[in-house]
Design brief:
The protein is of the alpha+beta class. It is 46% helix and 17% strand. The chain contains five helices and four strands; from the N terminus they run H-H-E-E-E-H-E-H-H. A hairpin with a 4-residue loop joins strand 2 and strand 3. The longest helix has 18 residues.
């Protein structure tokens, strides 16, 4: 599994570079972080990818998406980036939008699990998701 994780991190670095090329912010697709890529490798290693959808649009009210979702089980995973460097999730408008998103998801019946990059790296995120889904 370690070599798969390293390949994912190398591949994720290329994705990060692609995402950071000059493209208008309106035309830019959702950015995939290296930690999301690592989590995706872990999902496959744990054989939890059956029924999993990435960037799942769960709301018709807003354009909210989950990083990972298992719609038939109403389970979603969000990998929160930038928590230590004043990223979008910890600044005012981004934090408020996240509150709206997670509250709407809960009202709709979703169970949303939120993880930091450290939790993905140390394996605690995938272990909890495995427990939730089995």
């Amino acid at each position: 599994m370690y070599s798969d994780q390293m390949r994912a991190l190398r591949g994720a670095a290329a994705i990060d570079e692609m995402n950071n090329r000059t493209v208008s912010s309106k035309a830019r697709a959702p950015q995939l972080s290296r930690h999301e890529e690592l989590f995706a490798v872990q999902v496959r290693a744990y054989r939890l990818d059956d029924g999993m959808i990435r960037e799942y649009k769960f709301s018709e009210v807003r354009k909210f998406r989950f990083d990972f979702a298992w719609p038939t089980k109403w389970v979603a995973v969000e990998i929160e980036g930038g928590i230590w460097n004043e990223g979008r999730h910890t600044r005012g408008a981004g934090f408020a939008a996240d509150c709206e998103k997670y509250n709407l998801a809960t009202i709709d019946g979703w169970r949303v699990l939120r993880y930091t990059a450290d939790m993905v790296r140390d394996g605690s995120a995938i272990k909890q998701v495995d427990e939730m889904l089995r």
